Amino acid sequence: MAMEKDCVFCRIAAGEIPADRVYEDADNIVFKDIKPAAPVHLLAIPRRHVAKLSDCGEGEGELLAGLLLAAGRAAKAQRLGDFRLIVNNGIGAGQTVFHLHAHILAGARMSEKLL
Ligand code: AMP
Ligand code: ZN
Questions:
Q1: For all residues of the chain together, what is the average pLDDT?
Q2: 96 lines ligand 1 (CB under 6 A)
Q3: Residue 1: per-residue pLDDT
Q4: What is the pLDDT of residue 109?
Q5: pTM
Q6: Ligand 2 center from residue 9 Cα (angstroms)
Q7: Which residues of the chain are under the pLDDT cut of 70?
């Protein structure tokens, strides 16, 4: 398993930094965002370090599919109902943690349509 020692999400995956985990499978973890931007704000990450979506190629197809499935399963297990999934790719898009993650947002404020 590729592990970057200075990567906060690799350290969460390794159990070195605590996180409020709500779902796990062999390849992914879903945990609560430390600074929620919505009534429910979860982060879905692959255990394997990939810095960002645009770094992914054919070799990451299974990883990406697994991450989406994990996000959907976590949302279902948490009984979120409807939710929004966001991936910030790169500094210009607001990415601050360079370990691929999908934000799962749900709750009252999600009724606002952005796109
Ligand atoms: P992004 O801006 O898309 O890179 O999102 C990074 C997210 O990670 C932000 O919403 C942060 O609040 C969240 N975050 C950073 N460190 C932690 C941590 N230790 N535990 C949980 N969430 C974190
Ligand atoms: Zn990492």
A1: 94
A2: yes
A3: 54
A4: 67
A5: 0.95
A6: 5
A7: 1-2, 109, 115
Written as six digits, the tokens of 109 are: 């404020």
Q: Is the alpha carbon torsion for 68, 73, 78, 79 positive or negative?
A: positive
Catalytic residues, by residue number, are 101
CA of 40 to the centre of ligand 2 (A): 23
The whole-angstrom separation of Cα 110 and Cα 38 is 8
Retrieve residue 71's tokens: 């996000």
Gap from CA of 4 to ligand 2 centroid (Å) = 5
Which phi and psi (to 5°) does residue 2 adopt? Answer: -65, 130
* Domain spans in the chain, listed from the N-terminal domain onward: 8-106
- Residue 10 CB–ligand 1 contact under 6 Å: no
- What's residue 9's pLDDT? 98
Superfamily (CATH) of domain 8-106: HIT-like (3.30.428.10)
Question: Beta-carbon neighbour count of residue 19 at 10 Å?
Answer: 19
